[in-house]
Amino acid sequence: MTISEKPQLKSRFEDAASSMSPDQEGAIRILANELHRVNEAVMNCVNHGLSIELQRVKRCHSERGYWGDMIVPVIVKQGDERS
Question: What whole-number distance in Å separates Cα of residue 71 and Cα of residue 69?
Fold first, then answer.
């Protein structure tokens, strides 16, 4: 299996991280850990013969103007092969 190469966002994260509160850093750490688990689950589906696309279905907003995308998987089974 190959993973498509994407530009690294590390410098953008590092810039934002330098101005985060400890609570914000903790929230980002939780998000990063959960995204890692989602990525592992996507790779597992791909290894079991599924194509997965994560698609934004809505955006949540806070009263202070912050927002976040909510996603769902779109799953496409390729043919009828069994692993």
Answer: 6
How far is it, in rounded angstroms, from Cα 60 to Cα 67?
5
Enter the tokens of residue 10.
Answer: 């590390």
* Single pTM value for the model: 0.69
The distance from CA 26 to its chain's CA centroid, rounded to whole angstroms, is 17
- Please give the structure tokens belonging to residue 23: 């609570």
Number of neighbouring beta carbons within 10 Å of residue 60: 9
pLDDT in tens, the chain (83 residues): 556 655 555 656 666 667 899 999 999 999 999 999 999 999 999 999 999 999 999 999 999 999 999 999 999 877 665 55
Beta carbons within 10 angstroms of residue 46's beta carbon: 13
